[in-house]
Recover the amino acids of this structure.
């Protein structure tokens, strides 16, 4: 049982890392065509067309915009506002990715159990992911106001010293935004891990238990390795999503107070729709895409190696 | 050839055994503990209901008091003034068709990408992955203009095409990730039995993908259900407008009718909450009767 | 379940699905028939399409109905929140899909403002319309580009100080008419344990009202040509004493503790609620926000009154900032005459009045309108005397100067930067917008 489960995890993966696998199944490439057509029509072609604007001074007007070469990029890399937005983006990405994955995993493990209320609990923990950002923003703005429920609650349990102006103090606003994002999305990570846990045969656990492995050891040596694909997916999706983060920040703080929570996506949005500098905004979008791609690729390679090792 | 036989084991799923376990004290403690954690976690939803169920004056006076005299009129108001009945049908049509096509097209594509161990398939896989990273804004104007030229603006079709293309990277990524962990032996056995690749996929692989399909369905359905800017651009103001477009029309520049927006949103998230609740049971059943490793 | 049973289920499902698909496709909604938007309207008078913001949509709805009955013209209105409208309108104009009548921002304040679009030649010239004679001076300045009128004001908004009457009565206060009286009133309220002024500055929207309201009295009456001078580079915000005074006034209130504590973390709705409950005494807001404030009190509008924010010790110098809410005719409209005819209809005094009363706003045109609601009565005398000016940001070269003011303004409120730094940053954006 163990053998059949582990081997395919090694053999199945696509990619240069697996070239040594001789046995290739002849699934015809024809099956990928419908997806490719949709994808090319909606994403690839429009994006390539739109990306051209990054090298122009397009202001969203009709007619042919002027070609400006790499000017937009030079400006971007020399603008201090963009640097601070980049820093915020990276802080948000790293912290949400780590914390959200851990919380999502913990929730999935807890709710993959025999708890009678597990179905209800799964729905409850997942519920925040169903709300659109405008609603999330409104709710949390209210909860986090200086005289709001959170500070009240802290005061009433004797933790009055911990009260903060959560979204209004430039030194804690970023952390508050991160916490809200994790609150919203931990349920998504949980769902991915729950799906992954369906592939962990309980027999393995029983066998390990008979061998005398404790709870923690079983988790470390049996469950986690088998969850490697789910981990790859959860980490990648969270990382990519948090690098692109826009709505929650825009709705909750609009990048403020001051510039304390401004992300690259928010700068990109404002340059386009407040300033009308679409060409420059497109350049930011391109740079953002490249940053995300670089991070995702690095992470994916690392995780793939981990999956293969398992 | 059946997925059930593949598992080769007749042991009852352990969950059944555990489910029949006695209600010991630690167990009750664990149940209650989790429920308390969940309740704290869901506190913002209490605020949500508080806004949706109170008149603005009540809300201002006692934002956190339990709505003893619930203003159900908010819901009726939202339903009627926002024409949410029509919007609900529109959202169901768009999300339903999009998700069906996503699952069909995305699982097939991922099957190829996960099973072919070639450079080409890895390149294609990365190409799809790139779609997760590209900000929507890059292609917004060109795609809008193509839809205009095809005379598809103000139709479901434009929105469905957009949503399928836009959510495909997520579907492919999820399917490919789980497919790689799925043993090949089952489908190979089917192929030996003379099944073509498509029928092997349909009869053996796809049923085994149930837990992922559940994940793909729920994640993409939520994204599509809540999508706002593109639907506003494509079908805003038309009879085809979706729920978020209808509900957020109650937002103003300086004053918003929050009680209507929240009541409307309460109506809007119900269907998807129910879908999730039902789907996760189905996914678990899928496990119990399908894969056993 | 055996695989046979399963595939039977699947076959049935597929068949059902296919049937549904065919039915649905043939029903409307999936494809555009040649002219789907006018399927039930009578085609005699043609069609006018309009893309407006949420507020305009609410105010126009009854008028549109009357107009359709009267003329047989179909008016096909779509609406969105101003933020999203600004974003989408730009895409639509570029793509040639914009409606005939569009909502544009005043002056140069956004990429879809009357001034910006006017200079690009996107808007139809409305100068010959009879109603242009009824434009007030502050509105005309924002509706004109190079002597051509390009926008029609459906209504006007004013920035006013709303206060809780009970709280003022409890503290034995009269409405302040000078800056000193305002400061004294704040002190009395603070002594009574009330937050004198709700300052919901999260996101910055409510902060800018303070800048415009103070500038309306301190900057513009003294020097009506300030915007020309700024544009010509003859002066800057940082070196202009009056502009420095605007921020000094806000700082005075902040340093005295008269503004809400934790103001940068206070969202607008909570700020309004605090005035409704009497925790705070007053809040500076645009008149369009008054219905929301009123809604937060059981007594509705009765619980509140408004006054013009004084900024100096000469009560007669107080000016009130006023902003028009514009509609413009798309230069590429298929039937511009139909759009112009609809504006003509809206410009009739009884319709100007109907709109203003429906929305509780100031009439867009000076046509001797009598308002049902007494809400804005306290500022009527000022308007009658012409003591109104446009919001300061409208004639800045683009939206960036304002954006910098909002964001750096929060740092300034927080004490992280000095007034000179803030104004210098705004000057830099101003200069960039000019080039």
């Amino acid at each position: 049982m163990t053998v059949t489960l582990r081997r395919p995890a090694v053999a199945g993966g696509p990619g240069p890392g697996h070239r040594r696998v001789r046995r290739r199944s002849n699934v015809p490439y024809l099956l990928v065509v419908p997806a490719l057509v949709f994808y090319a029509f909606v994403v690839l072609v429009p994006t390539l067309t739109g990306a051209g604007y990054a090298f122009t001074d397009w202001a969203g007007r009709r007619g042919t915009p002027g070609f400006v070469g790499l000017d937009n990029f030079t400006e971007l890399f020399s603008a201090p506002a963009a640097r601070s937005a980049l820093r915020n983006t990276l802080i948000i990405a790293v912290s949400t990715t780590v914390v959200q994955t851990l919380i999502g995993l913990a929730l999935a493990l807890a709710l993959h159990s025999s708890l009678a209320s597990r179905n209800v609990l799964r729905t409850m923990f997942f519920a925040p992911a169903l709300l659109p950002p405008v609603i999330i923003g409104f709710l949390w703005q209210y909860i986090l106001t200086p005289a709001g429920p959170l500070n009240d609650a802290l005061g009433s349990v004797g933790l009055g010293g911990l009260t903060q102006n959560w979204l209004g103090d430039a030194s804690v606003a970023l952390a508050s935004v991160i916490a809200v994002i994790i609150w919203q999305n931990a349920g998504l990570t949980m769902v991915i891990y729950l799906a992954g846990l369906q592939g962990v045969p309980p027999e393995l656990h029983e066998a390990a238990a008979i061998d005398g492995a404790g709870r923690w050891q079983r988790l470390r040596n049996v469950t986690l390795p088998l969850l490697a694909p789910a981990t790859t997916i959860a980490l990648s999706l969270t990382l990519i999503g948090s690098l692109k983060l826009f709505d929650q920040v825009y709705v909750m703080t609009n990048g403020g107070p001051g510039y304390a929570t401004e992300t690259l996506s928010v700068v990109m949005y404002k340059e386009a729709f407040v300033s009308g500098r679409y060409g420059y905004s497109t350049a930011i979008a391109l740079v953002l895409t490249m940053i995300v791609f670089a991070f995702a690729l690095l992470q994916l390679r690392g995780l793939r190696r981990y999956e293969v090792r398992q | 050839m059946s997925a059930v036989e593949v598992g080769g084991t007749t042991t009852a799923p352990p969950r059944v055994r555990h489910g029949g376990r006695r209600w010991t004290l630690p167990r009750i403690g664990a149940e209650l503990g989790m429920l308390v954690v969940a309740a704290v976690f869901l506190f913002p939803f209490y605020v949500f209901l508080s806004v949706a169920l109170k008149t603005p004056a009540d809300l201002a006076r006692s934002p956190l008091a339990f709505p003893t005299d619930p203003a159900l009129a908010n819901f009726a108001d939202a339903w009627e003034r926002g024409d949410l009945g029509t919007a609900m049908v529109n959202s169901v049509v768009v999300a339903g068709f999009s998700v069906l096509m996503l699952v069909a097209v995305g699982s097939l594509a991922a099957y190829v990408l996960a099973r072919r161990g070639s450079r080409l398939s890895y390149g294609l896989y990365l190409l799809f992955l790139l779609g997760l990273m590209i900000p929507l804004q890059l292609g917004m104007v060109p795609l809008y203009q193509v839809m205009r030229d095809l005379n598809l603006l103000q139709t479901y079709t434009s929105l469905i095409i957009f949503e399928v293309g836009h959510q495909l990277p997520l579907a492919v990524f999820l399917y490919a990730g789980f497919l790689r962990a799925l043993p090949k032996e089952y489908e190979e056995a089917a192929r030996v039995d003379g099944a073509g690749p498509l029928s092997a996929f349909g009869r053996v692989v796809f049923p085994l993908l149930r837990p992922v399909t559940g994940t793909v369905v729920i994640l993409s359905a939520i994204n599509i259900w809540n999508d706002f800017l593109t639907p506003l651009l494509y079908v805003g103001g038309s009879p085809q407008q979706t729920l978020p477009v209808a509900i957020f029309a109650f937002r103003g520049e300086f004053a918003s009718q929050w009680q209507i927006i929240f009541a409307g949103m309460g109506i809007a998230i119900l269907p998807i909450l129910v879908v999730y609740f039902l789907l996760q049971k189905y996914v678990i059943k899928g496990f119990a009767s399908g894969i056993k490793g | 379940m055996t695989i046979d049973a399963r595939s039977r289920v699947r076959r049935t499902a597929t068949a059902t699905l296919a049937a549904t698909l065919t039915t649905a496709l043939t029903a409307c909604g999936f494809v555009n028939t040649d002219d789907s938007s006018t399927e039930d309207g009578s085609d005699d008078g043609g069609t006018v399409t309009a893309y407006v913001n949420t507020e305009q949509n609410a105010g126009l709805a009854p008028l549109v109905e009357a107009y359709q009955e009267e003329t047989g013209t179909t008016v096909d209105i779509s609406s969105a929140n101003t933020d999203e409208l600004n974003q989408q309108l730009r895409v639509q104009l570029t793509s040639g899909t914009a409606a005939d009548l569009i909502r544009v921002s005043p002056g140069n304040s956004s990429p879809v403002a009357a001034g910006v679009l006017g200079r690009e030649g996107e808007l139809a010239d409305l100068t010959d319309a009879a109603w242009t004679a009824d434009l007030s001076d502050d509105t005309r300045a924002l509706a004109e580009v190079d002597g051509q009128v390009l926008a029609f004001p459906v209504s006007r908004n004013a920035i006013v100080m709303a206060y809780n009457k009970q709280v003022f009565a409890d503290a034995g206060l009269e409405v302040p008419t000078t800056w000193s009286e305002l400061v004294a009133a704040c002190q009395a309220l603070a002594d009574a344990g009330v937050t004198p002024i709700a300052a919901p500055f999260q996101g910055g929207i409510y902060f800018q009202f303070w800048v415009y309201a103070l500038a309306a009295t301190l900057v513009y009456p003294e020097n009506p040509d300030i915007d020309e001078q700024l544009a010509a580079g003859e002066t800057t915000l940082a070196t202009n004493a009056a502009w420095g005074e605007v921020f000094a006034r806000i700082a005075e209130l902040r340093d005295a503790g008269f503004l809400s504590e934790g103001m940068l973390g206070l969202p607008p709705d909570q700020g309004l609620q605090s005035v409704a409950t009497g925790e705070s005494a007053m809040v500076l807001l645009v008149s369009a926000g008054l219905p929301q404030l009123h809604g937060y009190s059981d007594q509705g509008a009765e619980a509140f009154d408004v006054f013009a924010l004084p900024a100096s010790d000469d009560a007669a110098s107080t000016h009130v900032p006023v902003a028009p809410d514009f509609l413009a005719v798309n230069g590429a409209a298929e039937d511009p005459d139909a759009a112009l005819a609809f504006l003509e209809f809206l410009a009739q005094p009884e319709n100007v009045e109907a709109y203003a009363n429906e929305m509780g706003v100031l009439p867009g045109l000076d046509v001797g309108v009598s308002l049902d609601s007494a809400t804005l009565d306290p500022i009527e005398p000022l308007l009658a005397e012409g003591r109104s000016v446009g919001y300061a940001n409208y004639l800045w070269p683009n939206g960036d100067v304002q954006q910098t003011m909002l964001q750096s303004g929060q740092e300034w409120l927080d004490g992280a930067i000095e007034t000179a730094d803030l104004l210098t940053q705004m000057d830099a954006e101003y200069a960039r917008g000019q080039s």
Q: What stands out?
A: The mean pLDDT of chain C is 90. The radius of gyration of chain C is 25 Å. Residues 3-26 of chain C form the longest helix (24 residues).
